Amino acid sequence: MRHVIALDVGGTGMKAALVGADGELLHQARRSTGRERGPDSVVESILAFAADLRAHGERHFGEPAAAAGVAVPGIVDADRGIAAYSANLGWRDVPLRNLLSERLYGVPVALGHDVRTGGLAEGRIGAGRGADRFLFVPLGTGIAGAIGIDGRVEAGAHGFAGEIGHIVVRPGGAPCPCGQRGCLERFASAAAVSEAWAEASGDRDADAADCAKAVESGDPRAQAVWQDAVDALADGLVTALTLLDPRTLIVGGGLAEAGETLFTPLRAAVERRVTFQKLPSIVPAALGDTAGCLGAGLLAWDLLALPTHPASEVSA
To answer: Is pLDDT at 86 greater than 90 in this prediction?
Structure first.
């Protein structure tokens, strides 16, 4: 059975799958990145995981994988197949595509940015299916974005497209590690809500999920924290939709797990802010933590659809 390898590399763990031509997940597995042992160990963990997946496919499906796709965090040069930088994983300028292709006996390999790769999956087979223009915004420790155009995700001229978390929504506000003050992710990420609710509630261990539960129970302190985050998020999203005019706005990540506790006030806040802009559909992400892996599989299958795909020439 023809299949591809899909790898989604996170800060501490890796999710992987063997994916069939119809998108079916034929086999799934997870492993630690081993980042505590340093960046070289992380790279070797990725290569070894891919090799084991190849062997599994050969044993169980009669042939090795025809291609591989891998999604990684940080700064990614997809055209050259280089994982340029990741603060969490500690690596710089890793030629990951070539290393993987060599370990996998020369099959073509696609390298992609984790959020854009997850966005690709949400756009093609998830919540944005059928939308010619979409914006995918996961709300996690930070806030990123993936700009979808006709079934692909726009990386930008330098690979930085979609960094919506660094739109300034509160000028002069809290400092951001990026060097600016008042960035969206300092007010509306899951981490920001956790921090604000821990302070407001006096519970150092409280997080965003606890805040959402307190909102649902009618706690006015939680409602104030939540509304501040929703207002900041709406300001950032309206800036984005003014520039991009998406048909569908897909919101995912940990904060979106609050469901309508987030989406009902968010839709209202965005609607209050639009004037001439067309209001997109604002919907929750559909694929959860499988989006990155599914997207990596799509990148791999896209390689096989190209007229030629030598490993040294392909790009994600």
So the answer is: no
Query: Residue 316 above 80 pLDDT?
Result: no
Distance CA 26, CA 8 (A): 16
Instruction: Record the tokens describing residue 101, joined without a space.
Output: 């292709």
Residue 228, burial from CB neighbour count under 10 angstroms (0-12, 13-18, 19+): middle
Give me the chain's average pLDDT, please: 93
CA distances to 68, 117, 197, 315 from 47, rounded to whole Å, are 11, 19, 41, 18
pLDDT of residue 220: 98
Confidence at residue 310, expressed as pLDDT on a 0 to 100 scale: 45
Long-range Cβ contact pairs of 200-208 (< 8 A, separation 24 or more): 200/224, 200/225, 208/254, 208/255, 208/258
Q: Tens of pLDDT along 165-177? A: 999 999 999 999 8
The mean pLDDT of 77-81, rounded to a whole number, is 91
